[in-house]
Amino acid sequence: MIELRGVSKTVKSGDQQLTILHPIDLLVPSGQRMAIVGPSGSGKSTLLGLIAGLDAPTTGSILVDSTDITRLGEDDLARLRGAKIGFVFQSFHLIPSLTAQENVLVPMEIAGRRDAAVRARALLAEVGLADRGHHYPSQLSGGEQQRVAIARALSNEPVIVLADEPTGNLDSSTGHQVIQLLLGINQARGTTLVVVTHDTEIASMADARISLKDGRVVPGI
């Protein structure tokens, strides 16, 4: 479960304060598929980053699986992210000098999992890349790189998967395949899935959605 209580984000811009996200309350039950939609600059990625604990809110509290992450120090926050949250980025964020399998291995090696190699191979097979583990990111298509990124996000068996415009750098056909993969993972594993997207078709596949404009929740699609 994810719960936001009065969460806002304000940053300093020159001599003034710029509010990126106005106070928001949000509840995402365990296992739900939630879409966050809105135009560029509406605060979608900021909201997702706050949920992930990659940034701290200016006001309010954020509960992830019953833990108030706004009260955690950096070390505890990093441990919680590593154990409970998988993040999929628009730009894949793979390490170019590592193979697909090695990219999936990294979080598990950090966590000290003894079955890391076996699990990495199994995850690549789950996303349809059983025969591509020895390839480097530069040898993979955009869709294949995103599949590797999804496998990496699942490596530590997170209860929550957050995806920030996961199809933004893909053509429509490949993007549809990636979304179907994420939805299938949600259904098979029971993970909570929160997707930031500007694609109304993708948003329509979610159980629930919120629409942002200028950092405020507005009546959505």
Would you mind describing this structure in some detail?
The chain has 221 residues and is of the alpha/beta class. It has a single domain (2-218), classed as P-loop containing nucleotide triphosphate hydrolases (Rossmann fold). It is built from seven helices and ten strands. Strand 7, helix 6 and strand 8 (192-196) form a beta-alpha-beta unit. Helix 3 packs parallel to helix 5 (142-153). The radius of gyration is 17 Å and the shape is globular.
Q: What is the gist of this entry?
A:
By secondary structure, the protein is α/β, with parallel strands linked by helices. It has seven helices and ten strands. Helix 3 runs parallel beside helix 5 and helix 4 crosses helix 5.
List descriptors:
221 residues; alpha/beta; Rossmann fold; 6-stranded mixed sheet; 35% helix
